[in-house]
Amino acid sequence: MGRPPRRATRPSGGPATPRPPRPPHPPGPEPAVPRPAHRQAALALLVAAGGAVGSLGRYGLAQAMSPQHGWPVGTLTANLAGAFLLGVLLEVLGRRGPETPGVQRARLALGTGVLGGFTTFSSLALETERLLAAGSVGTALGYAGLTLVAGVLAAAAGVAVVAAAHGRGSGR
């Protein structure tokens, strides 16, 4: 006589629970998974076109505003104005609700593209280095510090302006 059939057990020693049957695979191709934004050519082109516009705007501003007492006021103005406008843009878009494809395109074209090209950390770094190399340590530190602190405050002011305007517009 043979042994009785062995029952499957869990590690705890109890009987194993049977697995539920898998649902049948629906016919047709697998559902498409959306590609990340940075892998979509159309969105990358929006960012590039916006960046070109913003960079030209910054260049024009820098040409129109020559340095004053060693301060690169063109870059400082671009960075502070851009930070303010980015605060405005992101608050406006955020108040629209969840991001839709249209909101995503606006954010990437205007925020990442135009304002990313208009503002410039690389020029801030280069101008700070040039001031340091020229021995203008106080001007370099003042310029870099003012840009960073005032940039954060400018972005917060942009958010606050939209929030205040939204509050007035909704009858609050």
Automatic annotation (TrEMBL):
UniProt keyword list: Cell membrane, Ion channel, Ion transport, Membrane, Metal-binding, Sodium, Transmembrane, Transmembrane helix, Transport
Location(s), subcellular: Cell membrane
UniProt function note: Fluoride-specific ion channel. Important for reducing fluoride concentration in the cell, thus reducing its toxicity.
Pfam families noted in UniProt: CRCB (PF02537)
Family from the record: Belongs to the fluoride channel Fluc/FEX (TC 1.A.43) family.
Name recorded for this polypeptide: Fluoride-specific ion channel FluC
Feature: compositional bias, Pro residues: 17-34
Chief place where the protein resides: membrane
Cleaved signal peptide residues: none
Transmembrane segments: 41-61, 73-94, 106-126, 141-165
Gene Ontology biological process terms from the UniProt entry: cellular detoxification of fluoride
Bilayer topology annotation: Multi-pass membrane protein
Inhibition and activation profile: Na(+) is not transported, but it plays an essential structural role and its presence is essential for fluoride channel function.
Positions contributing to Na(+) binding: G116, T119
Region (Disordered): 1-37
The reaction(s) this protein catalyses: fluoride(in) = fluoride(out)
UniProt GO cellular component terms: plasma membrane
Recorded GO MF terms: fluoride channel activity; metal ion binding
HAMAP family named in the record: FluC
